[in-house]
Amino acid sequence: NAGVTQTPKFQVLKTGQSMTLQCAQDMNHNSMYWYRQDPGMGLRLIYYSASEGTTDKGEVPNGYNVSRLNKREFSLRLESAAPSQTSVYFCASSEAPSGPAHNEQFFGPGTRLTVL
Amino acid sequence: AQKVTQAQTEISVVEKEDVTLDCVYETRDTTYYLFWYKQPPSGELVFLIRRNSFDEQNEISGRYSWNFQKSTSSFNFTITASQVVDSAVYFCALSDSNSGYSTLTFGKGTMLLVSP
Q1: A44 to chain B: which residues are within 8 Å by CB?
Q2: DSSP of chain B
Q3: A-chain residues within 8 Å CB-CB of B99?
Q4: B61-107, pLDDT tens digit by residue?
Q5: Among B49, B104, B106, which would you mutate to test the A interface (most chain A Cβ atoms within 10 Å of its Cβ)?
C-alpha cells in the first residue's frame, strides 16, 4: 500500500497563476484533510472532507478551493496564487470517527510550493 | 477555542541523555484526543501516539513514554537515552468536538537536536 500520495512534490508559481495539488489515499479512509505548514507556525487546517461528497472550511481557507473527487482523491486548488501561499502543503486521511473516538491521521509526503 | 502550546521551540541534547518535550492544551470538552507526531528532516509526518481524555495511564513504547495529566492539561513526551535518529520536529495535537470532525489543532512544534 502506498498510503497517502501527493503530486507534485515541488512547484514554483508566479503570482496570479493557478494550480491544483493532487492527493490520493489507498487505505479506504472516509475523511481527508489539507494542511499547510509554515516555519514556526505548526500545521494549520485549510479544508477537510468528512466523507465523499462533503467539504468544510478549516482555519485558513481563504484563497483555496477543494474537490473531493471520489473516496480516494481530494484535490486543493489555488485559483490565483499569492506569495503568502508559499508553504509546504500536506494531505492527510483518517478513518471516520467511531462515536466520540477521533482517529489518527496519516499524512502524505507534502508538496513544497513557492510563489514568486 | 482549542489550543495547543509547545513552549520549547528547540532543544539540544547529547546522545544518551533523556529529554522531555512539553505539551499543554486547552479545551472546554470533557471528551478529547491528544496526539504526538514526529517530523524527521526528510519532512514526512509520522504518527506516534493517540490518547483519549478518559485514559490517564502513562504509556511506554520502547524508549518513548508519555505522561498525561488532566489536572495540569499536559501531555508530555519523554525520550529515554536519546539517539541521533531522534532528531526531528515533534508536534503535539488536539482533537475535540469543536475540531470539526476529527480535525487536528497542532502546536507549533519542538525541534529536537541530538548530537553524537
Answers
A1: 106
A2: --EEE---SEEEEETT--EEE--EEE-S-SSEEEEEEEE-TT---EEEEEEETT----EEETTEEEEEEGGGTEEEEEESS--GGG-EEEEEEEEEGGGSSS--EE---EEEEEE-
A3: 102
A4: 899 999 999 999 999 999 999 999 999 999 999 988 765 567 889 99
A5: B104
